[in-house]
Amino acid sequence: MFTVVIHALLLAFGLILPLGVQNVFVFNQGANQRMFKQALPVVVTASVCDTILIIVAVLGVSAVVAAFSFFQTLIFGIGFLFLAYMGFVTWKSEPSKTSLKEGMTVKAQILFAASVSLLNPHALMDIIGVIGTNSLLYSGKEKWIFTLVTISVSWIWFLFLAFAGKVIGKMDTNGKIMIWVNKVSACMIWGVALYMAKSILFH
């Protein structure tokens, strides 16, 4: 059982730690909201979306996706367009002009967090292709422990990310740090988009 927990921890952290669209958005909302609790809608939405995807992956959708290659091509195609747009939006975002004291409304946080969680093919392929596939190594109680640990990592990480954003936001009163964070994030997002384009062309 201990091996299952360690496996799930290492796998979940390995997938969720890299800076991606979802992480960037949660971090930015932590930085932009006046109070930490005002960033909780994005934390809860991102965590719930990941929870749903992980459960669906463990229940066997990963095997279906793996069996039909055109699903992967479709997901990567949609993902390229989505990430290319998200990179543009992130690059153009300038907190110093909009004030770090004004964050998104609850509705906007929920809708945007859901979109970057459920329409991000990189995350979908990670969860369905990696977590789903690895869950096939277990059955019964071990499989559900594996699932619960990966879900727990997601919730803890997003809480930490929003809190870290809040700390940086307090330090960055004029928005200069966040502008550079956005620029770097945009480049990374575009990098993932190009990787997906390559996957489609040379599949």
From TrEMBL:
<feature type="transmembrane region" description="Helical">
    <location>
        <begin position="110"/>
        <end position="132"/>
    </location>
</feature>
<feature type="transmembrane region" description="Helical">
    <location>
        <begin position="39"/>
        <end position="64"/>
    </location>
</feature>
<feature type="transmembrane region" description="Helical">
    <location>
        <begin position="144"/>
        <end position="165"/>
    </location>
</feature>
<dbReference type="InterPro" id="IPR001123">
    <property type="entry name" value="LeuE-type"/>
</dbReference>
<dbReference type="GO" id="GO:0015171">
    <property type="term" value="F:amino acid transmembrane transporter activity"/>
</dbReference>
<dbReference type="Pfam" id="PF01810">
    <property type="entry name" value="LysE"/>
</dbReference>
<keyword id="KW-0472">Membrane</keyword>
<feature type="transmembrane region" description="Helical">
    <location>
        <begin position="70"/>
        <end position="89"/>
    </location>
</feature>
<keyword id="KW-1003">Cell membrane</keyword>
<protein>
    <submittedName>
        <fullName>L-lysine exporter family protein LysE/ArgO</fullName>
    </submittedName>
</protein>
<dbReference type="GO" id="GO:0005886">
    <property type="term" value="C:plasma membrane"/>
</dbReference>
<feature type="transmembrane region" description="Helical">
    <location>
        <begin position="6"/>
        <end position="27"/>
    </location>
</feature>
<keyword id="KW-0812">Transmembrane</keyword>
<keyword id="KW-1133">Transmembrane helix</keyword>
<feature type="transmembrane region" description="Helical">
    <location>
        <begin position="177"/>
        <end position="197"/>
    </location>
</feature>
